[in-house]
Structures are given as C-alpha cells and as structure tokens.
Design brief:
The strands form 3 sheets. Strands 9-10-4-3-11 form a 5-stranded mixed β-sheet. The protein has a single domain, classed as Metal Binding Protein, Guanine Nucleotide Exchange Factor, Chain A (Beta Complex), CATH 2.170.150. The longest helix has 7 residues, at 30-36. By secondary structure, the chain is mainly beta. It is globular, with a radius of gyration of 15 Å. Strand 1 (3-7) and strand 2 form a beta hairpin. The termini are far apart. The chain is 5% helix and 36% strand. Belongs to the Gfa family.
Length: 133
C-alpha cells in the first residue's frame, strides 16, 4: 500500500490518498474536455483507497452534472481539480493534483468517440522545455 499526497494550485487544499490505484484513464468525453479545458482528463481510480483531507476541506466544492454520473470536485479559491468520491465508494483522483510522481502508466484512453478533432498526431509537433520565444 502506498500513500500519495496532493494539493490544489494555491495550496489551500491538501490531501492524502492511502492505498493503491486500480486504473488510470485518459477520458476524452465531452464533459471531461469541458472540465479540463483540454483534449482529455487524466484520472486515477480506486475502489479501496482512502481519501483524507489534511487542510482546506471547507474550500472543496463538488459539481455534479444533472442527469449524468459526471462529477468534479475543485478548490473554491483557485479552481484546481481535486479528488472526488462517487457511487459505490469509487475514488477518482485527477492525476495532475498529486504532488508526487505516480509510477502507474495510463491504463487506456476512454470515450475516444468524443475525441477532440485536433487531438491527433500530437507527437509530431515541435517540443520545447519551456515557453517558446
């Protein structure tokens, strides 16, 4: 069993995840595109891990899209995506909110039928270590 630590961008919210992840999905559904403002969301899933809020739990809010199972928790101060609990004890952790490396590679791309039209052949684009001049 591993402990993972994470936080929001402004540092108001800090948390610990005790346990292991079952899967790591890159979700291309339109809801995740809207949530992330990008081509996909990168979320870790666990049925057994335990979430412990270490600081700022009163700054965490959760939005559930009516008529769907789509849910997003985030910091009220900076808007950063944060872990959320779903039906049947499923814990969903946005990979980018962890403050440490995750050794697990993504399990799969999901909802690829909704993939953004510009999300193709991205490995062929120029690469920069920082913001280009």
């Amino acid at each position: 069993m591993t402990d993972y630590f994470g936080s929001c961008l402004c540092g108001t919210v800090k948390f610990e995840v005790q346990g292991d992840f079952d899967s790591f999905y890159l979700c291309h559904c339109q809801h995740c595109q809207k949530d992330s403002g990008s081509a996909h969301a990168a979320n870790l899933f666990s049925q057994s891990a335990k979430l412990i809020w270490l600081a700022g739990s009163d700054s965490v809010t959760t939005f559930t899209l009516a008529g769907t199972r789509h849910k997003k928790s985030f910091c009220k101060v900076c808007g950063s995506a944060l872990p959320s609990t779903h039906d049947a004890g499923l814990l969903v952790i946005p990979a980018g909110c962890l403050d440490m490396e995750v050794s697990m590679s993504p399990t799969a791309h999901i909802f690829t039928s909704s993939k953004a039209v510009w999300d193709k052949e991205l490995d062929t684009l120029p690469k920069f270590d920082g913001l280009p001049d």
